[in-house]
Amino acid sequence: MSAWLVEVFEALFALALAPGLVGLIRWIKARMQSRLGPPPWQPYRELRKLLHKEVVVSDNASWLFRFAPYAVSASTLAIAFLVPLIVVPRRFDMIGDLFVVVYLLLLGTFWLALAGLDPGSAFGGMGASRDVTVAALAEPSTATAIFSLALGAGSTNLGAIVVATLNDPRTVLTPGHLLAFAALFVVALAETGRLPVDNPATHLELTMIHEAMILEYSGRYLALLEWASGLKLFLFLSLLANLFFPWGIAQTMTPAALAWALAVLVLKLVILAVVLAVIETRVAKLRLFRVPELLTASFVLALLAITSSFLLR
Amino acid sequence: MDMTLLSGLLAALIICYLAGALCALLAGDLYGRMLAAAGAVLGALATVGLGIAALSTGAPFSAIFNFLPFGGCALRIDGLSAPFLILTGLVGAASAIYGYGYSAAYEHVYSLRRLGALFNLLLLSLALQVMADNVVTFLFLWEIMSLLAYLLVLTEHREPAAIRAANWYMAISHIGFAALLAMFLLLAGGDLTAAFDTLRANAPSLPDRDLIFLLALLGFGAKAGLIPLHVWLPMAHPVAPSHVSALMSGVVIKMGVYGFCRVVLDLLGAGPPWWGGLVLAVGIASALFGVLYALMEHDLKRLLAYHSVENIGIIFIGIGAGLMFQSYGLLTLAALGFVAALYHALNHACFKGLLFLGAGSVLHATFTRNMEAMGGLIKKMPRTALAFLIGSASISALPPLNGFASEWLVFQTLLGGSHIPEPRVALMMPVAVALLALTGGLAMACFVKAFGITFLAIPRSKAAEQAHESPASMQTGMGILAVACVVLGLIPFFIVPVFGRALAGLGKLPWDTARFTLALPLDIPGAVGSMSSPLLAAGLLILLAAIPLALRLAGADRRTRLGHTWGCGRIGQTPRMQYTATAFAEPLRRVFAELYRPTQDLSIDFHPESKYFVQSIEYQSEIHPWFEKLLYQPLIGIFQKTADRVRWIQAGWLGLYLAYILFALIALLVFAGWLP
Amino acid sequence: MQLFTKMWEVGIVTEPLAAECAALELARQVETKTKKLLGRAVAIRQVDAGSCNGCELEITGLTSPVYDLERFGLHFVASPRHADMLLVTGPVTRNMEVPLCKTYEATPAPKIVVAVGDCAQTCGVFKGSYAIAGSVDTVIPVDVFVRGCPPEPADILRGILAALDRFPL
Fold first, then answer.
1. Does A35 touch chain C (CB under 8 A)?
2. Shortest CB distance from B563 goes to which of C79, C98, C105?
3. Residue C108 to residue A36, Cβ atoms within 8 A
4. Which end of chain C has fewer beta carbons closer than 10 Å to its terminal beta carbon, N or C?
């Protein structure tokens, strides 16, 4: 019973920290741009403000527009329960594995794209079209990377993969593992809408992918969508950190181990946040029709990962 | 198993279908429609009952029906037939109820008697097809089924598109039939009255098993719609009446799957790995090309037809993986592959049937299949929109619906490829996984487009503005399949063991640990992961309820105001300011331009006085599936040229034709006499 | 690598905001509730109601490292649905009158309007032209005027903060 509670707490912890991660990345980017920037807890203020604002809904929109933010948040939050954050082995493993996670992400994309089309604005349609393109093209790399991980661990369940890596630390340095990490990192950039695929801070609608779909949202709906997007980033980075470099994660339920696992997770996320901020400052956004080239490169990396896993078995 | 129950259900279904057909022929109006639909529904329910009764014995079995020794006809029901009976009955019942309301539009335009009778007879032939137990019965029913489907495609016989589609359907059906005839001749050693039992016994010792396998793939692939024999699908399914399209896409093409499984899995037995590899490759190609061409369509029913090609590809991926594992002796994984394929066949029948019925409702309301003329239908037809949404989410393999459950199983099967001893062969599996994932993503993109452009935003034409909700019978038909989609998605833990048990014994597939666990994870021997659909669905529902509650507790502001769509402050909004279906698919069209090879025509009319002023610009871009151009047009050209050359034989003189017959007869007698 | 060495050398160049209020004029009191809600996180939508773009150039300076409006929790957004504050420039031309109204309507309550530049308050040099519909406060309610042609970025920043009651007026 307490094991379930700990895992529920993990998901709530992810929910609570996600805006902080987004704020941290923004803060680092600001400092790298030679300015002071907002404090790392700024997204929390923004979310609080959004919750108390009025909602304006287009008269062309249907029930789908009002339902979509809940669907997107629910599917992203469901992923939070499946990703190993603090403790393994996981009781929630039996509910879903990596394929469930991937398809829950697609569920979120599906609803958000429909919500972009609903009000009948051209921006929403454009954002929806681009978002589903990027999501579809990121699928092969994700699936192949999952295969490569499952090959090593003998299971597609996330907790099992982490346990397998912990039991055999030498797998971390195998080429298959590292190539799969690189492939999944590019997929993470694409799925969470970061540079070089999509600029989260852009104001030019013609350059937007994710932002374009939420242009019609306001108030509490916008708060839910922004939170879900931050949570998605948090979960992707945690997945990258814990699947590939799982040390520090608690394998027993003692409070000391759990606290240590929490601290190590935060440290890993801070490192990944710095890496992400540096990449975002260094690269320019890719033209939309060059994003498939990037995703193909990621797929090739994933294929190399799986080939080397097969050959080196 | 209780033979009387099974025989009774079989008799019931035959009687109901025949009665329905008879009533349709006798009374062409409202009563005829009602009675035909009633006959079809009752027959379909009997079919489902038969299938469920067969599956519920709990052990591999087969039951022979002896009360129909109709000129060498033999019927037997076994584990492989039962799932197909269930899907035939389910889609048949829903289509029949739907058809009652839908065919009202044909009154006084096309023959309702014909439609009702043919519909009932088609359902009968489909039900009997999966129970055929000797070669003659199988081929006879196969041909009847193709003929009935052909006639149903020709329901709107004054439309040139329908005539063209029916011709192509007939041609490719018969190419397939020729292959099947050749295959059965080889399999039965020349004896077409042989029972399947004899074939099963003799098969291991046959010399040309590879040829039989290829002929089976050709013949059943033509019916199922595998690349490159799929060209009739996007032509025939759109022009048929919508409930017939649902039946054709949901059930008739599954007969190709059934036939292939029957011959290759059951009769022929295990073969070399390249069999599985070939089927896997053809499946992947069908899946990928099906979804790529579907993306570019803006005819709603053609889009759905191409998705049928895609899903048949996925089913054959499961079958191919199963065959491959079987040839390497990994029998548990092989069983998983076949179960995944059968489960996907059942799911596809449900969600594709639902989508076609939904498209039919849209067609009924707006009189057009062109997506670019639709929009805003979610407000005019809310229940149809909800049903179509459920169908779209299912076909996009989104959890926790049924498409996700079966695709998850197919992925788990392919992941088992790591156990294959040869690394070069095993590498096919990750490629298959990657391409299957790509197909799934593209399918989701396509259905966001299909649902979004058709139902959301503002109506793009007068027809869409004046749309109305479908009548109750059509809504009921869709509702049945929508509920089926949801329920089938929640019970994989039940279906997998049942199907596994049903397949046990065929081709020496084991299922020693068939477990029935309620609401617990799908724990399958051989699979590398676990997933629990009902718990996932419950979790999602809890979160969906918890989030608004949390917002309420956080004191979120509840004011909502209606405003205009933000368009940068423009004055007014016309439907032309929205995104179109072509525009939606454009990024993917550019990404896959090498595969599509679109043609582009740009003509600019300049002002006669100066080249700086333009009077008009016309841009036309078309995508012609290059199968037709590269494969079929040359073949058709050759045939036409040959036919032209041979035409001199037909001099138009009756005496000459009689002489031809006499010469042919003499030649045959001489030839027969010369044979040992 | 050159980029990173340059960043290290340059450091943080943001200038602290001095407390001068000569260019500001409070048009109407903003509700206390709004001020408290929007105090620390404000999304700004800039609307060009026919200006000569002189004010826009100054507003662009606000996002530069020197003036850095993000340090106060302000940031620009593309859609008025996301915005809490409208930053309006220019005398309102006849063509931009309806779009400005629509932008105001599209913004969810509570909202604040800051009008930037002399044109926004008095139509500036364009006063009396056939193409002008009126100053900004004749079209939508304005909370703070920032005078200047164009006003300095620091003045604009002070005006925005004054509307939020984070700057003494």
1. yes
2. C105
3. no
4. N
Q: What is the pLDDT of residue B609?
A: 87
Cβ-based burial of B35 (10 A; exposed 0-12, middle 13-18, buried ≥19): buried
∠ Cα A77 A79 A83 (to 5°) = 125
Is beta strand C24-26 parallel, antiparallel or unpaired with respect to B599-606?
Answer: unpaired
Chain C CB contacts of B561 under 8 Å are: 108-109
- Burial (Cβ within 10 Å: 0-12, 13-18, ≥19) of residue C98: middle
**CA A279, CA A284: separation in Å to the nearest integer?**
9
Least Cα separation, residue C138 to chain B (angstroms)? 18
Beta strands at C24-26 and B62-65: parallel, antiparallel or unpaired: unpaired
Q: Which residue of B has its CA nearest to A219?
A: B557
**ipTM, two decimals:** 0.95
Task: Return the structure tokens found at A182.
Answer: 């690189």
Nearest CA-CA partner of B381 in B304, B300, B483, B451: B451
**Residue range B274-317, pLDDT digits in tens:** 999 999 999 999 999 999 999 999 999 999 999 999 999 999 99
- Going from the C-alpha of B272 to that of each of B209, B213, B318, B416, B526, the distances in angstroms are 10, 11, 17, 18, 21
Mean pLDDT (whole number) for A86-99: 85
For residue B517, the model assigns a pLDDT of 44
Q: Hey, what amino acid is at B633?
A: Q
- β-strands B62-65, B75-78 pairing: antiparallel
Select from A259, A92, A288 the least CA-distant residue to A196. A288
Q: Which amino acid is at B443?
A: A
**Which residues lie across from C74 on neighbouring strands?**
C42
Parallel/antiparallel/unpaired status of strands C74-76 and C42-48: parallel
In the predicted structure, residue C124 carries a pLDDT above the cut 90: no
The pTM for the full model equals 0.94
Contact A125, A216 (CB under 8 A): no
B396–A106 C-beta distance less than 8 A: yes
Element housing B440 (H / E): helix B428-455
Interface with chain C: mutation pick from B557, B559, B568, B573, highest number of C CBs within 10 Å: B568
